[in-house]
């Protein structure tokens, strides 16, 4: 059991750790992807803003009343150039002659052969090339009306301090600027709009495109590695948190396993030391009110006085592999009590619960036979209750049930309806009684969906020739309904809670005199 728990703890721990790691990594990649996606958009918006602002600036110069090339005119141009770091020079032109200007250009200005583009908006553009080169930098020229500007394209993209990022600016699909200047970048046509995570190349690529003033494309490329750099602290914190959780999980499983192990050891001792007690819950014939027997239910009080619920300790004994010892301990007490009961109530029988493991070999069957023979009791003094889950797919259990019946024991299927057994499946077993589960009895007289199911269960039992016992009868209304539907027997708090032997004897006496 401890080994099983250790394996469960290990698998659980690894899964938990992996799940936390996955969530943290996914969140980091999502944050980074969103950030990388907004990078191209913000760079593109800035570049577009610069072009629009420059066009508006040139339009403003044209509208100005200041006499051209006057001190006022040149001061205005100077102020505009100084406040915009990407503007290298501004010139005033008449036809194809530069009359005056400000900035770092010869007075005659730059005169590249012909414009690369003339737009409907009135903007004329020259892409950076040899003839626009000044001081080793090829400038982008833009003219609107009678003024033009020379723009340093290197300053159109501002990527901040992170060196791993790359970005490029295209106007009319012609590369105008990049950061770093010689960066290797995919061309716009090769990249879809928005954000693409390219795991093959380990990068997040984002593209921003607009055509408000000039058709621009900005592509930003960010290595996925940088996710680790930027989110290392989150990932480390996540890993530490995961480790703490896994450690807590291990401790919890260890404590639980230790507890279960010591509980199982204590239960095993209690079974060997004959400290298991039983109680009897009467089964009543609904037509006459006679008590025809009882279900024998195991009880265990721990050394410290704690009363354990049977569904807990029965499951524990099943898991720890000694449920047959519990069954046999209960059986020995039942046989002993029956010899006393039968002296006063000759026909009385008790129902013994069998666990699935009891139907895997002959141990319980042969011990039961020898115990009854030794006590001089007939086999029909002990009836057997088998839960639906014990019927699951076993030829051994089918054969053992047949043996029990041949020896003279009545066999009941318990908790029927809580599992998945179908009518046709039930037919493959030799059975005598069907116990209708308490959940169906609870639904009697209510509008619950299950309230109709009990009718089908009763019909089904009838069609299979099985007697019926309704479990968990708690009210007179339920009893009436069951009588009307010709259910043979009832068991439940309405008649009696489980009783010690003395209490059960009293119950039988009262019923006899009633
Ligand atoms: N393999 C074995 N299983 C056993 C043995 N002894 C008990 N059990 C199983 O444990 C489960 C819980 O049993 P218990 O707490 O004893 O509860 C029984 C009744 O007290 C309860 N019941 C009966 N009538 C009513 C009622 O009207 N209202 C209400 N709230 N509870 C009621 O039902 C339990 C009996 O159910 P069932 O066995 O399905 O007839 C239980 O599954 C036991 O089977 C053992 O020795 N071996």
From TrEMBL:
It is a multi-pass membrane protein. Its main location: membrane. Its EC number is 3.1.4.52. GO terms for molecular function: cyclic-guanylate-specific phosphodiesterase activity. The chain crosses the membrane at residues 235-254. Residues 260-512 form the EAL domain. It is found in: Cell membrane. The keyword Heme does not apply. It is an enzyme of class 3 (hydrolase). GO terms for cellular component: plasma membrane. It catalyses: 3',3'-c-di-GMP + H2O = 5'-phosphoguanylyl(3'->5')guanosine + H(+). Gene3D superfamilies: EAL domain. Keywords: c-di-GMP, Cell membrane, Hydrolase, Membrane, Transmembrane, Transmembrane helix. InterPro entries: CSS-motif_dom, Cyclic-di-GMP_PDE-like, EAL_dom, EAL_sf. This is cyclic-guanylate-specific phosphodiesterase. It comes from Tahibacter soli.
């Amino acid at each position: 059991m401890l080994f099983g728990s250790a394996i469960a703890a290990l698998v659980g721990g690894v899964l938990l750790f992996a799940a936390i790691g996955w969530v943290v990594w996914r969140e980091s990649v999502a944050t980074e992807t969103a950030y990388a996606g907004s990078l191209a958009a913000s760079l593109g918006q800035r570049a577009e803003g610069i072009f629009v602002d420059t066009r508006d600036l040139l339009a403003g110069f044209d509208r100005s009343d200041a006499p051209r090339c006057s001190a006022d005119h040149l001061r205005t141009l100077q102020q505009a150039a100084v406040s915009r770091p990407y503007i290298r020079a501004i010139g005033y032109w008449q036809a194809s002659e530069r009359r005056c200007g400000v900035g770092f250009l010869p007075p005659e200005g730059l005169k590249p052969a012909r414009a690369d583009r003339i737009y409907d908006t009135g903007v004329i553009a020259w892409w950076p090339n040899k003839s626009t080169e000044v001081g080793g930098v090829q400038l982008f020229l833009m003219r609107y009306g009678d003024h033009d500007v020379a723009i340093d394209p290197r300053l159109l993209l501002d990527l901040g301090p992170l060196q791993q990022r790359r970005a490029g600016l295209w106007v009319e699909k012609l590369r105008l600027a990049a950061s770093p200047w010689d960066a290797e970048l995919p061309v716009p046509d090769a990249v879809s709009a928005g954000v693409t995570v390219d795991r093959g190349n380990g990068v997040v690529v984002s593209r921003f495109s607009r055509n408000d003033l000039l058709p621009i494309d900005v592509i930003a490329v960010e290595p996925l590695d940088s996710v680790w750099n930027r989110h290392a602290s989150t990932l480390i914190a996540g890993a530490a948190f995961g480790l703490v959780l896994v450690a807590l999980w291990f401790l919890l499983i260890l404590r639980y396993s230790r507890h279960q192990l010591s509980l199982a050891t204590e239960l095993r001792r209690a079974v060997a030391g004959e400290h298991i007690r039983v109680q009897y819950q009467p089964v009543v014939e609904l037509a006459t009110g006679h008590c025809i027997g009882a279900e024998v239910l195991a009880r265990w009080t721990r050394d410290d006085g704690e009363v354990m619920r049977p569904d807990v300790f029965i499951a524990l004994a099943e898991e720890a592999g000694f449920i047959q010892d519990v069954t046999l301990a209960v059986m020995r007490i039942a046989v002993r009590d029956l010899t006393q009961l039968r002296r006063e109530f000759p026909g009385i029988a008790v129902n013994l619960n069998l666990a699935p493991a009891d139907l895997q070999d002959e141990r319980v069957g042969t011990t039961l036979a020898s115990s009854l023979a030794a006590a001089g009791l007939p086999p029909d003094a002990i009836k057997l209750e088998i839960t639906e889950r014990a019927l699951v797919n076993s030829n051994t259990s089918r054969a053992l049930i047949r043996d029990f019946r041949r020896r003279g024991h009545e066999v009941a299927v318990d908790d029927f309806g809580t599992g998945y057994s179908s009518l046709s499946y039930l037919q493959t077993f030799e059975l005598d009684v069907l116990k209708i589960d308490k959940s169906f009895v609870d639904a009697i007289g209510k509008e619950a969906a299950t309230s109709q199911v009990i009718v089908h269960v009763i019909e089904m039992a009838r069609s299979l020739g099985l007697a019926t016992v309704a479990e968990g009868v708690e009210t007179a209304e339920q009893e009436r309904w069951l009588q009307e539907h010709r259910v043979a027997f009832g068991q439940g708090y309405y008649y009696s809670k489980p009783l010690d032997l003395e209490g059960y004897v009293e119950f039988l006496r009262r019923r006899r005199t009633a």
